[in-house]
Amino acid sequence: MPKVKVRFTISGDTDTRFEGGARSVTVTTTGSGTATAPVIEAGERTGEFTVRARVVERSLTAVEVPATVTARQADELARVGDKALVCEPGKEFADQVEVKATYKGESAAGVAATATMVKSAQDGAANDKGPYFKGADGKPVRTLKGLKTDEDGKLLLPKMYADDTAGTYLLRIVTNGGATLTVELKVAASASPTASASPTA
After folding, report:
1. Domain of life of the organism in this record (predicted)?
2. Which residue, of 71, 75, 97, 194, is most buried by count of CB atoms within 10 Å of its CB?
C-alpha cells in the first residue's frame, strides 16, 4: 500500500538503536508500497533483539524480524614494536607490551582480550613463577581478564615485573574471535663489566 505510515520498533535487552538513537521510528511507504527502516546500529551489549514493523492505524498483522548482537571479534593480533623484552631478576621491565587487533584487515575496536603468563607454548595455564603484573593490592597477577582494545584496535598492557627466577617466559594474549599472540619475555642478570687489563711495566 502506497503512502501509509509504518512504525518500526526495536525490542530486547540489547542497546541496539536506529540511527540517531531512537528505538522506534515511523516511515511512509513509497509509491510501490515498500517501507525501509533506518540504519540499525548495534551497541555494546550483546544478545538478541527484534525489529517489529506495524502499519499505523491499520489492523494488519505486524511483521517481526529477530536478530542478534554478537561480541566484537579480531582475527589477527600483532605486537606494536619489536624491541626485546628483557629484565633483571626482581626488577621492572623497561617496556610495556602493546598489540594491535584487526578483523578482516581493519582495526578491531572494543574487542575483549585476556593476557596470561603461560607455563609453556603447549600449556596455556598460568605460570606460578617468572614475570607478572601487579594487582590492585600490589600482589603478583599472571592473568589479566576484561581487557579491551581502544578505538584504534590497540591494547597497551600494564607494566610487568620479574621475580627472582631467571629464564625465558611466554606471555600469551587471546582476543574474542580467536586471535592469539605469544610474546617472549626474558629474565636474566645483566652481564658483569669486563675487568680492564692491568697495564704492563
Report:
1. Bacteria
2. 97
